[in-house]
Amino acid sequence: MFEIYNKKLEDLKSASHFRAVSEFERKEGKYIYVNGKRLLNLSSNNYLNFADNEEITKEFLDTVGYKYTFGSASARLLTGTLPVYNELENIITSLFNTEKTLLFNSGYHANVGINSAIADSGDVIFSDKLNHASIIDGMQLSKGKFFRYRHNDMESLEKLILRERENYKNAIIVSESVFSMDGDIADLKKLVELKKKYNCILVVDEAHAFGVFGEQGLGVCEEFGIIQDVDLIMGTFGKAIGSMGAFATGRKVLIEYLTNKARSFIFSTSLPPIDIAFSKWIIENKLPQTYAKRMRMLNLAKQMNSESQIIPVIVGENDKTVKLSEILFQNGYFTLPIRPPTVPQGTSRLRLSLTADIVEDDLTKLKEVILNYM
Ligand SMILES: Cc1ncc(COP(=O)(O)O)c(C=O)c1O
User: Fold this and answer.
1) CATH code for the domain of 313
2) Which residue of 64, 143, 158, 226 lies most exposed, with the fewest beta carbons within 10 A?
3) Ligand 1, atom 4, residue with closest C-alpha
4) Where are the beta strands (DSSP E) in 42-168?
5) Owning domain of residue 209
């Protein structure tokens, strides 16, 4: 009975696709310690160094965190909600100047919940080809139909809309703002134009941009001045904010609909109050002081030809990618190989992500090693 799984695992191994969770000893700022070796961590979404940061954790626990517990023990619709959950939702609503916000347990929960609920039978979703797995999983659970357009290709999207829009009632366009594996930025202004022209709902996933882009750190929609043109913005607390959880913010009618229909919200125990309180504390007390270091990080990324803090080094074959990651490890860099199905076949890569404490000198040897290898 289990032979089939063994065979599948062997196939993964022979294609250099096999994955296992590795262990590290500890993290300290921009460094990670693995097998007694200190490495520059280029595989982290801890963009502002708020996660596993002893100083920040202690300050939070001493001033606020001690009041909160580690379990919520129920979904919010079942037992109600402590004030801190509503307070965090209200802060997000007021920062974005939207109508209403709903918290989710993670970005994965948010995308699965949003995309499965927002399109009913007779509706359609147009999704960027490189959108995150959680968006794809949500669409697959939806009763609506979905089509994927070529990555960030607005002509491909418009052609698809012209071909399909009239066959459906509601149409939804969904895109990441900063693409998680490529680091490029969606043509959001054109997406707004198309959604208005063809009467669609626009949903934007700011997972890698919330806490990084924009004057207040709200994301690319803030930076482009289009928050009010987007119907639903999703952001996570698990990346730049250094906590856990996610939000959807936008039109009241959509948020109330998700509260009633998003199964990942309805049928899962909510995050512990202490996590919610930590996200709130970071957003209120720490995020407002990060502008200079966020800009420094993005300038460093620009020098490496990336529009965002995520810098893809596309190698191609799996085994060659794994090898480059090992060479970089020997040279003091922690970068994990990213392979299909996370990225398309033939585009295995190292996904370098900068964090705010990394400086130019940290990357000199890295560039040399990569250039020699490619
Ligand atoms: C674009 C995008 N959306 C959503 C998620 C899921 O967010 P979370 O890690 O909070 O579940 C990720 C995670 O990597 C992501 O890259």
Assistant:
1) 3.90.1150.10
2) 143
3) 107
4) 100-104, 124-128, 145-149
5) 68-287
Q: Using one digit for the tens of pLDDT, what is the confidence trace for 64-89? A: 999 999 999 999 999 999 999 999 99
Q: What are phi and psi of 181, to 5 degrees?
A: -105, -10
Domain final position from 268, 287, 306: 287
Q: Which atom of ligand 1 is nearest to the CA of 179?
A: 1
Ligand 1 atom 8 nearest Cα: 107
User: Model's pTM, two decimal places?
Assistant: 0.96
Residue nearest to atom 5 of ligand 1 (CA): 107
CA of 328 to the centre of ligand 1 (A): 26
Q: What is the pLDDT of residues 125-183, one digit of tens each?
A: 999 999 999 999 999 999 999 999 999 999 999 999 999 999 999 999 999 999 999 99
Q: Are 277 and 243 in contact (CB under 8 A)?
A: no
Same domain as 349, residue 205: no
Which residues, 6+ apart, have CB-to-CB distance to 273 below 8 Å? 68, 69, 72, 82, 84, 85
Domains contained in the chain, number: 2
Any ligand 1 atom below 6 A from CB of 245: no
134 C-beta closer than 6 A to ligand 1? yes
